[in-house]
Amino acid sequence: MVDINNGDDLDDTSYDEILNELGAGSTDRPVGPSRLADVLRVGSTNPFASALSALELSRRGGTFERSPSNASGLRQRALAVLREHTKRRLREAGYTVGLTNPVDFFIRKFPRHSVFRYIQSHPDLDHMRGLVAMRNAGIHILNFWDTQHDKVPEFRGEEDEAEWNAYEMLRQGSSGARVLRLYRGDTGAFWNQDPTGYGDHDSIEILSPTPAIVQEANKLGKSNNLSYVLRISYMGYRIVLGGDAETEVWQDLVAHYGTDLRCDVLKASHHGRDSGYYADAVRLMNPDYTIVSVGKKPATDASNKYRRYCSNVWSTRWYGNLTLEISRERRMTWFAEHVD
Fold first, then answer.
1. Position 64 confidence tier, pLDDT thresholds 50, 70, 90
2. What DSSP character marks residue 271?
3. Would residue 189 count as lying in a domain?
4. How far apart are CA 251 and CA 229, in angstroms?
5. Has this prediction a pTM greater than 0.70?
6. Cβ partners under 8 Å of residue 259, min gap 6
7. Beta strand 312-315 pairing with 178-180
8. Structural domain harbouring 314
9. Is the pLDDT of residue 196 over 90?
10. Which of 194, 200, 235, 277 is deepest in the core (most CB within 10 A)?
11. 325 - beta bridge partners?
């Protein structure tokens, strides 16, 4: 398992983009959830904040003081109101691609199983929400891949703090999992060395990070560049998982691997954003299929750039869950949850 996010909300940018693509965009919509938390502060003149303050005053039946503690509670209620508002608008616009809860999916597909290997690509909350649900469901993690850092993120609420604490327990070894912090070129049994000596070239390769990349990412506070960039080789096929790695990492990969970056399938870095796109790397990988985990973002989306080097660029935004099956006959077959 690589990363998890069991949130039932798209980010605010994605809400706007889907509505615009469906022709249901509107300029009267308040600022989105992540930006809303920044404007709902003491002394804010934002009209949506003011309306919610009035609502809070009415509910309490008395004078409402915009203290920091009150403002924090107000932000959480505002976020909840806005999420329901945007979900309703998506339904009304005809958007039917729902989000799959990965914990429920795992329990359904692999009942009473542990996770042999969980890889935390990098320490961003949108890549680890669900660790608490896994623990509560009794899903044990046997091997936990992590990176070296001292990041502490901003929490949008108590649930985020609980997820981070669950992550900290895992990375400190308090949950019983074996913790590995690996770098390019590292080898080990069960992921790129077969303990029986049988070699069929199936493996998980760590393309990034290196100790130098980790040091620079921590120095600059760029946690995306801590990402594990992995290449899975199976039956002659190569699949690259790009995490959220940004340009500097891809430049390093181009310099180190050159034409050996080739792959058949690419999971686009940073949800298909421009910040994760580096033309020279994509050209050298030359994938037959590129998967974008969120999809079109008009101002920052790189989907069309990926199409310069790949004729099949698919987004989970419109296809839902995408499943790749590689058969013993050395053929790849794709299955989409939603097909036009």
1. very low
2. G
3. yes
4. 13
5. yes
6. 284
7. unpaired
8. 102-336
9. no
10. 277
11. 333
Instruction: Check residue 188 and give its pLDDT.
Output: 92
d(CA 288, CA 309): 9
107 and 66 within one domain: no
For residue 324, which phi and psi values (nearest 5 degrees)? -105, 125
Please count the structural domains in the chain: 2
Q: Which residues contact 261 (CB under 8 A, 6 or more apart)?
A: 207, 240, 253, 254, 281, 284, 285
- Give SS3 for 238: strand
Q: Are residues 120 and 55 in the same domain?
A: no
Among 21-30, 98-107, 210-219, 297-306, which stretch is predicted with the lowest mean pLDDT? 21-30
Q: How far apart are CA 278 and CA 200, in angstroms?
A: 31
E-assigned strands of 40-131? Answer: 115-119
- Whether residue 135 sits in one domain with residue 84: no
- Identify the H or E element spanning 39: helix 33-39
Quick one: 106 and 179 in the same domain?
yes
Instruction: Give the per-residue pLDDT at 89.
Output: 76
